[in-house]
Recover the amino acids of this structure.
C-alpha cells in the first residue's frame, strides 16, 4: 500500500520521459523511457539487450548531458569497451571525462559460501558511490539476474531486488535493467514483478537463414506507446528502430513537378513530369527498358543539381553506368559530383527490415530529392509477399512524408498479367507507367503507356519506346486500319503510306500538266481566232473604207459634172447618186 | 633447534588473515563480528588476524575488493582466497568454509 501511494503522487504531473537518443525508439515510446524510473529490457541471448542499454547511456551522456553508470555483471568494462568500439562508442573516453562510470561486478558462485542472514548492501554502496562520482542520471544494470547464479537464497535476493528498484526510483535514476527472457514469464527470474513501469521485449529470430531483430513495448505505464513489433537493426551507427515515422496518411501533397528525364514522357504527363514527392511505379517485362527509364530519371534529377539515391538489387553501379552510356546517359559524371549515390546489394543479403532500415539510413545520409529502387520484385526473394508489401507501404509513406519522389521498378514475369505487380503496390503508386514488349512479325518492340497518374491529365496513348544513342524517344505507335504497328512494321507501313502519297502526288501533277497543256492549246486557239477576227475586222474596215472612197470618188465625179452643168439641187443629186450606186 | 625453528616457521605460515566487510552498525554486522570472534577463538587459536572494514565509511573498497553481500568474510591468507557471506551464525559452515581444522591444535602435539 505504501508503495502504491508513493508511486501515484508524482504521477499527478504528466509522466516525464528521458529521451534515449536511439533512432526510432523515442518515436515509438512517445519521447523516451520513463524518467527517473526503471525499464526492463528483456530478450533471449544475443538479441541486443546490452546494446540498447549502452546506447541509452552513451547517448544520454553525449546528447542529453546526463551522465550514466554502468554496472556490468557479465562482462568486464574492458571487454564491453572493445565490443562497442565498433559502433563508434568510446566508453573509456567517456569514463575519462566523467560522463560515464563503469563497474564490473563479479559474481563467482564457486567462491562464495553462505552462512546465515545477509543482504546486498555492498551492491548499493557501490552503486551509490558510482552515481556520486559522475553525478549520474542514468543507470544500466547488465544483467542483474546474474546475481541469482551467485547467491542461493532466492528469498533474500528477491527482497533485495525490490529494495534496489525502490532505491533507484527514490534517487530518480532513469534505469535500464537487462534480463534474460524466461520461458513462461517475460524474464527468467520474474523481474517484471518488481519493475512494472516499462518493459521492452527484444527478439531475434531467423527466418529462412535470414535474421530479423524485433522490438516490442510490452508495457509502458502512464503513456500511450506503439504496441506493434518493430524491426530494428544494429550496425556501425548503433541501433535503429522502425518505423522512423508512423503509418499515417497525412503527407503534404506538392504541386511541384519534376521532369522524368524523357521529354516525350513529360509531354504525356501534361508536359511537366511527375509530381514531386509522389510514388512512381515502373513495371514491365524483362528487357523492356525499365532500368533505362529509371536512369533517365536519375540523370534528370542530377541535371537539376539535386541529389538522387539509386538503390540497385540487380546490377552493380559500375555495370549500370556502363550500360547507360550506350543510350547516351552519363551517370558517372553525377557520381563523381556526389549528386548520384548508387548503392547496390543483393536482396537476399538481408531480411526485409534490414533492407528498409538500410534504405532509411541511406536516405538520411544522402538527403536525396528522388529515390530509385530497382527492382523491388527481387525483395520478394528475401521475404514473404505480405512483409514486402508492408515494407513498401512503410517506405512509400516515409518518402512521401519527406517529399522525396520515388521510382519503384517492378519486374513483371513472363506470362503474368501485365497490369498487376507481384508486390501488390500498384494501388499505392501515384503514377504507374507500364512498359511492355509487343511481339509482331518476328521482332519485339518496346511500348510504353501511362496506366494511371493521379492528379493530372495524362496521355492515354500507347507510345513506342525507342532506346537510341541520343537517349530515350517516345514516338506515337502506328494506329491505323492495319491495327497497332510498331518497329519495322510501323516503318514499313509508314513507307507504304509515304509511297502511296507520292504516287497520288505524281498523278495529280500529271493531270495538272495535262490540263495546263490543254489550257495553253485553247489559249493558242483563242489567239489565232482572235487574230482571224482582227483580220476580218480589218478587212471589213478596208472594204468599207474603199467603198466609201469609191462613193466619195463618184460623188466627187458627179459633183464635178454638176458643177460643170451648174444646175443641181441637193435632192436630185442625191437621188442620182443612189441611182448610180444601184447601177454600179 | 632446527626442527623447532621449522615448526615455528610452519606455524607462522599458517596464520589466518581474515577480513570482515560490514556496512554500518547493523544487527547483521554486529552478529557477524561477535560470531567470527567466537569461532576464531574456539577453532583457530591465536593464529589469526581479523580486520573489520566498514564499507559505508570507505565505499571504494567495495569495488576494489569485489564485495556485494554484507556481511562478507574473506580469508585472504592462506591462499586461495575464500569468501563466506552471511552473519556467520552457522559455526560448522564457517569452519568448513574457511578450511580451518578444528582440531589442528590438538594434532600438533602428536
Amino acid at each position: 500500500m505504501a508503495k502504491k501511494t508513493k508511486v501515484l503522487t508524482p504521477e499527478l504531473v504528466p509522466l516525464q520521459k528521458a529521451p534515449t537518443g536511439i533512432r526510432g525508439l523515442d518515436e515509438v515510446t512517445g519521447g523516451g523511457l520513463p524518467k527517473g524510473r526503471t525499464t526492463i529490457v528483456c530478450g533471449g541471448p544475443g538479441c541486443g539487450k546490452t546494446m540498447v542499454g549502452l546506447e541509452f547511456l552513451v547517448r544520454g551522456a553525449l546528447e542529453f548531458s546526463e551522465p550514466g553508470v554502468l554496472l556490468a555483471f557479465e562482462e568486464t568494462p574492458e571487454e564491453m569497451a572493445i565490443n562497442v568500439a565498433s559502433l563508434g562508442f568510446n566508453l573509456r573516453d567517456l569514463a575519462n571525462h566523467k560522463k560515464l562510470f563503469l563497474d564490473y561486478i563479479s559474481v563467482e558462485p564457486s567462491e562464495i559460501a553462505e552462512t546465515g542472514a545477509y543482504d546486498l548492501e555492498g551492491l548499493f554502496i557501490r552503486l551509490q558511490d558510482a552515481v556520486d562520482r559522475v553525478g549520474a542520471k542514468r543507470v544500466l544494470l547488465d544483467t542483474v539476474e546474474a546475481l541469482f547464479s551467485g547467491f542461493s537464497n532466492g528469498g533474500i535476493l528477491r527482497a533485495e531486488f525490490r529494495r534496489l528498484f525502490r532505491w533507484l526510483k527514490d534517487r530518480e535514476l532513469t534505469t535500464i535493467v537487462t534480463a534474460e527472457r524466461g520461458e513462461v514469464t517475460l524474464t527468467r527470474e520474474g523481474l517484471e514483478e518488481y519493475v512494472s513501469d516499462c518493459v521492452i521485449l527484444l527478439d531475434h529470430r531467423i527466418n529462412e537463414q535470414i535474421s530479423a531483430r524485433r522490438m516490442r513495448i510490452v508495457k509502458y505505464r502512464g503513456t500511450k506507446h506503439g504496441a506493434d513489433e518493430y524491426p530494428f537493426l544494429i550496425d556501425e551507427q548503433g541501433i535503429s528502430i522502425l518505423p522512423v515515422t508512423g503509418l499515417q496518411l497525412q503527407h503534404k501533397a506538392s504541386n511541384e513537378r519534376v521532369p522524368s528525364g524523357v521529354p516525350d514522357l513529360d509531354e504525356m504527363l501534361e508536359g511537366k513530369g511527375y509530381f514531386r514527392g509522389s510514388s512512381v511505379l515502373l513495371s514491365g517485362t524483362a528487357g523492356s527498358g525499365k532500368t533505362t527509364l529509371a536512369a533517365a530519371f536519375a540523370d534528370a534529377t542530377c541535371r537539376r543539381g539535386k541529389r538522387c539515391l539509386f538503390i540497385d538489387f540487380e546490377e552493380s553501379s559500375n555495370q549500370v553506368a556502363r550500360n547507360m552510356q550506350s543510350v547516351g546517359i552519363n551517370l558517372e559524371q553525377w557520381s563523381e559530383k556526389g549528386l548520384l549515390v548508387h548503392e547496390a546489394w543483393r536482396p537476399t543479403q538481408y531480411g526485409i527490415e534490414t533492407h528498409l532500415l538500410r534504405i532509411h539510413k541511406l536516405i538520411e545520409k544522402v538527403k536525396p530529392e528522388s529515390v530509385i529502387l530497382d527492382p523491388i520484385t527481387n525483395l520478394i526473394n528475401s521475404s514473404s509477399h505480405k512483409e514486402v508489401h508492408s515494407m513498401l507501404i512503410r517506405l512509400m509513406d516515409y518518402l512521401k512524408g519527406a517529399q522525396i519522389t520515388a521510382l519503384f521498378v517492378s519486374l513483371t514475369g513472363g506470362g503474368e498479367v501485365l497490369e498487376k505487380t507481384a508486390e501488390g503496390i500498384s494501388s499505392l503508386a501515384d503514377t504507374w507507367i507500364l512498359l511492355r514488349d509487343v511481339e509482331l512479325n518476328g521482332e519485339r518492340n518496346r511500348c510504353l503507356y501511362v496506366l494511371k497518374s493521379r492528379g493530372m491529365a495524362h496521355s492515354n496513348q500507347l507510345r513506342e519506346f525507342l532506346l537510341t544513342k541520343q537517349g530515350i524517344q517516345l514516338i506515337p505507335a502506328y494506329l491505323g486500319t492495319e491495327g497497332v504497328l510498331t518497329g519495322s512494321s510501323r516503318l514499313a507501313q509508314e513507307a507504304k503510306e509515304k509511297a502511296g502519297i507520292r504516287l497520288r502526288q505524281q498523278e495529280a501533277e500529271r493531270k495538272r500538266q495535262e490540263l495546263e497543256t490543254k489550257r495553253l492549246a485553247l489559249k493558242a486557239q483563242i489567239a489565232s481566232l482572235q487574230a482571224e477576227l482582227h483580220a476580218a475586222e480589218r478587212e471589213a474596215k478596208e472594204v468599207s473604207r474603199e467603198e466609201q472612197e469609191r462613193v466619195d470618188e463618184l460623188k466627187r465625179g458627179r459633183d464635178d459634172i454638176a458643177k460643170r452643168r451648174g444646175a443641181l439641187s441637193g435632192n436630185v443629186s442625191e437621188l442620182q447618186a443612189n441611182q448610180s450606186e444601184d447601177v454600179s | 633447534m632446527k626442527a623447532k625453528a621449522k615448526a615455528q616457521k610452519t606455524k607462522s605460515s599458517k596464520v589466518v588473515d581474515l577480513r570482515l566487510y560490514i556496512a554500518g552498525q547493523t544487527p547483521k554486522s554486529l552478529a557477524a563480528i561477535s560470531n567470527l570472534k567466537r569461532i576464531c577463538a574456539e577453532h583457530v587459536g591465536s593464529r589469526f588476524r581479523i580486520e573489520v572494514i566498514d564499507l559505508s565509511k570507505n565505499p571504494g573498497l567495495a569495488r576494489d575488493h569485489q564485495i556485494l553481500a554484507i556481511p562478507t568474510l574473506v580469508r585472504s591468507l592462506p591462499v586461495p582466497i575464500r569468501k563466506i557471506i552471511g552473519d556467520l551464525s552457522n559455526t560448522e559452515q564457517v569452519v568448513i568454509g574457511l578450511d580451518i581444522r578444528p582440531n589442528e591444535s590438538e594434532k600438533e602435539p602428536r
User: Anything to note?
Assistant: Chain B touches chain A through 34 residues (CB under 8 Å). The longest helix of chain B spans residues 27-43. Confidence is low (pLDDT under 50) at residues 1-13, 103-110 of chain B. The domain at 14-92 of chain B is CATH 3.40.30.10 (Glutaredoxin).
